[in-house]
Specification:
This protein is α+β, with helices and mostly antiparallel strands. The chain is built from 11 helices and 15 strands.
Length: 541
Amino acid sequence: MAGAIIENMSTRKLCIVGGILLVFQVIAFLVGGLIAPSPTTAVPYMSVKCIDVRKNHHRTKWLMPWGPNHCKKLKDFDEAVSRQIEANDIVFAVHVPLPTKEMSPWFQFMLFIMQLDIAFKMDNDLRENAEITLDVSLAYRDDTFSDWQEIAHAIENRKLKCTFSSPKTVESEGRHYDCDFLPFMEIGSVAHKYYLINIRLPVNERKGINVGIGEIKDIRLVGIHQNGGFTKVWFAMKTFLTPSILIIMVWYWRRITLMTRAPVLLEKVIFALGISMTFINIPVEWFSIGFDWTWMLLFGDIRQGIFYAMLLSFWIIFCGEHMMDQNERNQLSGYWKQVGPIAVGSFCLFIFDMCERGVQLKNPFYSIWTTEVGTELAMAFIIVAGICLCLYFLFLCFMVFQVFRNISGKQSSLPAMSKARRLHYEGLIFRFKFLMLITLACAAMTVIFFIVSQVTEGHWKWGDITIQVNSAFFTGIYGMWNLYVFALMFLYAPSHKNYGDDQSNGDLGVTSGEELQLTTTITHVDGPTEVYKLARKEAQE
């Protein structure tokens, strides 16, 4: 009778906790959908063709597309030909942002992609696999009268991938090619109010530089930055969730240290998962508002990589520690086959990120995809990481199948037990299945909302209410994984309740003073738990 009361109380607590977490999950989605604006904004920029008549093209003077000190402009290249202006004397200038606007540190990052308007001309056709050389410079200033300060200068090459739908005849001259967008620039902070981009297309026929690239009419840029309103909501969520996870971590580890035994592997992995979640949560982004920290994008990728590697490792160890017929448990070395692919895949993605965003810390115009060697290297890292991920999921699915098969086998022994003991074991099995169900739900929600955010227009409008789907995806999924880690530490913290000698030695069948807890693999000072002893006995048989 006592065991039934204990299990009913525990199940009721589980339902209450689940209900509270569900409420917070709904709130996390609503915060992004109803309060936050769209995560990013795309702004189109049309470059202005400036004439650079200075000797040797000194870069100490920057060419402004508009304003009181704007450059001498060209309407089109026909004017340049009539005025005998060479291609090396033409600079494409872009001012960021548009007139009367200012950039803000709340925008967090800037990503630019380039589109070339290339016209077909019989005597200047676009060659197959043509490559364009860009001489690009980036500068900043924080008011409208100061001198421009250089941030970066580089000479970059980009491969042109263009198609021409009409026949290449004299009648088709003037029609434009359909060209793919080109990666142009990415910087990890927006610490200044104004930015200036100067782009030159140097021509050297002897070296074959910018020869056979067609007749370029215009250069267009699309600038993408994070919305300031979304940044504030995101920072607020991080600031709220950081102490929440820290408090449950302290409480969880304190419960473990009060035990008379050493922490077991599953408890250590759950605690490590909490640390990795806290590492993501700590709102160091607040400092990016006052400091020019261009490495924040790379730092964010590293933090996410650590968390996902820890999460994948936890799922493997969690299943392994619940395989009741496994004799060697509670040792990390027993999982090297399953954890190995996680480590290899994470390392490959880290190297890829360092080759891309790591180099961009010095040269924001760099892209690993612009060269054949870089593309092959990047694809190699991604393919290896993909193979490792596939191997991991094969191992995980196999282990989940084994766990459920073993649990089903053990359930056949439950009818022979007393009612209280049977309820105790059924409770343990129920909690395992409950957590597996929550894990699958979290993974499914992540995939579903990612797909929805990609195929929708970014928002849904119901009457007067506008729901930002992309913002809801970011805040909802971020909140969901925080709640997942919170629930893990709450449900798997050791219990210190002692239900008395009579109850302990009665129907429940455990030793006096033994502590009840959710995991089936905890080993006490007085010996293994009853579930573990039952499992090992049947395994030996």
